[in-house]
Every structure is written in structure tokens, then in C-alpha cells.
């Protein structure tokens, strides 16, 4: 078996014991590395005054990690700049929040070069290299310049936007050309894959060859849709762990005779939380009979706090939750519980299980793992109902959820009302189909599909076609 080298912006190695607070991506990658030998390369999370290329090699819980420190300027231009002020908002259809700044672009290129130069000596001839997410699009291009001939794959965790939108980015063609330095580029859904193809066919004189490869910039590229999943079995077990049970009991005691609606998201403007709050408010105003019967718990740990747009959405959510509570709360009832702290994964599993409805309504989302975790955590005999945005990648798989337009508070309110009164038989039927999908298309299936597709690409194509 080939060694696998995983590269992502941040290296975080979860212990697998359920108490960590890291996101879905980190969990998925650590799971991949426990089975393949190899290593995980990326930024340490620390800064230095001057970049020195020093690498820190460690072995944690069966996973070898190699990390480098970056400079403050790298962080502000590459991470907080090009990645999170340019690509993230644009790829989530927030052109209004997208900053175009030449220094961001330069910092992005510089950090990708630094990654390439420090990673280069670690790569052995038969290694498969798997690079993750929008922070590192140019990395293969930089590695090729240093003579790397290995098979290199890229997986985009966020949406690939529609053709017209990406052309608003200065130097969009260079960004797309950099993707042709890979052997395989994977997307979350066929829709994103098609949007990428459409760009290449229209803007870069691309063609699709008889063997299904995309050819442009003088090079062939395999693309594919690889929907990411969760470790469904592990999550279902977490949901019946003692800690989850305790959390469940606490929730049940405090929500006695009330139905709980839950939302769990990093505090990010792409998650549609404002419209979701308005949707809940609408439910309360349209259905006075439900007022004391329901409560909405939104868990939203803070994220990217140094980026202004995140401070603004936080302020708006603070105001909105305060307003709804001010309007509807009573001396012994508060409709909204809005919490900005992190919970352990097993506690989260208990919260999901105690909820009657999950509201997962991002305005755009590559996949959304919360939707899948909620499904995995349910009690099969009395499952809750998933309300899901049509603009989450997960909607492409989770058809039996109540699918809504996240921009419409009215639709959200209607779906909530339907979910809260759904008969047990229908809840069970829907949940079974959802759980079947979450179990089948899990994180292992995702990883194996991608790695096998990468291993099957003809290595050396790049060496030949670049000559
Ligand atoms: C990106 C893409 C894609 C949240 N609060 C707590 C907590 N979380 C965990 C959730 C879930 C993860 O964070 C969030 O994952 P999502 O998939 O929902 O969203 P992003 O962070 O935006 O992830 C997304 C994903 O990459 C993978 O490809 O699905 O579309 O945007 O696992 O449970 N975890 C803990 N405490 C919390 O308070 N422990």
C-alpha cells in the first residue's frame, strides 16, 4: 500500500475519546491516517517573527505529524486574508463580503510556496499526496515546480461556485490553472463538480476527453464528487455514552413538557443563523398555542473572531436573540437559548438526542456534518426530525429531511410546525432512510473512494504533459 501524505492548513490530532472540540474535517483526516501509514503536514497554529522552515515532527495517537510555524504577516494575508476574506465569502456566494487585495493574493502564494519547500524533502517516490481545502489550492503547482512527480489529489470542502461568480475574482484563471497541477480534484457534490467543469469549458477552452478527463492548460485532470461523511457508528455510540446520557437528562429536566429545537454551527455568516432566528420568531408569532411548548437552543462557538464580518454577524445574532426573548419570554420561560461556547462531542451527541428537531439551514455549505451527526445520534424508536437547507451539500444525499429554502423565515416556520407535529410512524420512516445513508456513505467510504481514485490516476501524466 502506498504511503499517504495529508496536507491541510491546520494540523489537529484529535484523541478519538470524544472530549475534543475540533471540527469535522480534523476528525475525518485523523481517522484516515490511523489506517494508512504516512503523515499529516500543515501549520502548527504558532507564529514566529521570521519564517525559518523549521519542521516539528511528532507522533500522536498513531498519527505522525509535521508542522511549521508561520509569520504574523502570513496569517493576516494568507489565512485571515485571501483564504477567509476572499475565497471563503466568494465561494459561499457572499460577494458583498469579499475583499480583493493584492497583498492577500501575494501572501497566499508565498505561504503555499513555503508549504511546498518544507514538504518537498518528506515526499518519497510512491507516496500519494492528498491536499485539503481552499487554503492550499496552489500547493501542487508549487510542488511540481520543485520536481515532484507523485500523484497529488485535492479535495475542496466548501462549495465550488457558479461559473459567473468565480469570474468576479481577479486572477481567477490562475487559480483554476493551479488546479490542473493535480491528478485528481474532488468536490462534495456533482453540482460543484459540474460548476467547475462549466468554468473550464467556457473560460479556459477546456474539453472533456473520451476517457472522461477534463483537459485544459495543456494538461489532463480527473475530477469527481466525493461527499464527505461522519463516523456514524462512533457517533451513535457517543450518543449512548454516560456523558451523553447525563447531558440528555439535564436537557430533559430543563425542557420538561417542552419540545426542543436545536442548531449547532460555528458562528459563521454562511450558516444562515439570522434567517433561522427569524424563522423561529415567525413560528412563535404565527402559532400562539406553541409559545410555551417549544424552545430553541442554538449552540454557536465563536470562529475567525479577528475577521470583521464575523464580529458583525455575532453582534446581529446577539441583538436578534435578545429581541425575540424580550418579545416572547415569560417569568418562567425563555424561547431562545443562545450559547457561544464549545461542548465536548459526547455532550453534543446528548443534546442532539434530546432535540425533537434540528435546524440546519446554511445559506451555502459544502456538505454540513451537523446534519449527519444529528441523524446518527437519534433514538431509533423515537427519532427527531431534520430540517435541512437545500443549499447544504448534504441535501444531495439526505432527501428524507424536510428540505427548506434557508432565505425564507416563512418556509422555516412552516417546516418547524410540520416537524413538531409529525406522527411517530412518519418520523421513524424518514429517520431510517436518513440513517441508512449516513451509515453507508460514511467517512471511511469517502476516504477510500478518494484515495482509490487518486491511486488509479495514471502517475506521470503531469511529468509528460508539462514537458
Ligand atoms: C467545512 C465545510 C463541510 C460545532 N460546534 C461544536 C462542535 N462542532 C462541530 C460539529 C461538526 C463540525 O464542528 C462542523 O462541521 P460542518 O460540516 O457543519 O461545518 P464547517 O466547520 O464549516 O466545515 C462543511 C466540512 O468542512 C467537512 O468537509 O461539511 O460544509 O464548511 O462536526 O459537530 N464540536 C464540538 N463542540 C461544539 O460546540 N465538539
Describe it.
Mean pLDDT is 93; it is low at 463-467. This protein is of the alpha/beta class and 467 residues long. The strands form two sheets. It has a ten-stranded mixed sheet, sandwiched between helices. Strands 13-12-11-14-15-16 form a six-stranded parallel sheet, with helices on both faces. The chain contains 17 helices and 16 strands. Strand 9 and strand 10 form a beta hairpin. It starts with a strand and ends with a helix. The site of GDP-alpha-D-glucose has 23 residues, from helix 1, helix 12 and helix 13. It comes from Phenylobacterium koreense. This is Trehalose-6-phosphate synthase.
- The helix/strand class is alpha/beta
Shape: globular
Please give the order of strands in the largest beta sheet: 3-4-2-1-5-6-7-10-9-8
Rg computed from alpha carbons, rounded to a whole number of angstroms: 23 Å
Q: In percent, how much strand structure appears in the residues?
A: 15-25%
Could you tell me which ligands this complex binds, including any ions or cofactors?
Answer: GDP-alpha-D-glucose
Oligomer: single chain
Proportion of residues in helical segments: 40-55%
- What is the distance, rounded to the nearest whole angstrom, between the alpha carbons of the first and last residues? 29 Å
What integer is the average pLDDT? 93
Low-pLDDT regions? 463-467
* Number of distinct beta strands: 16
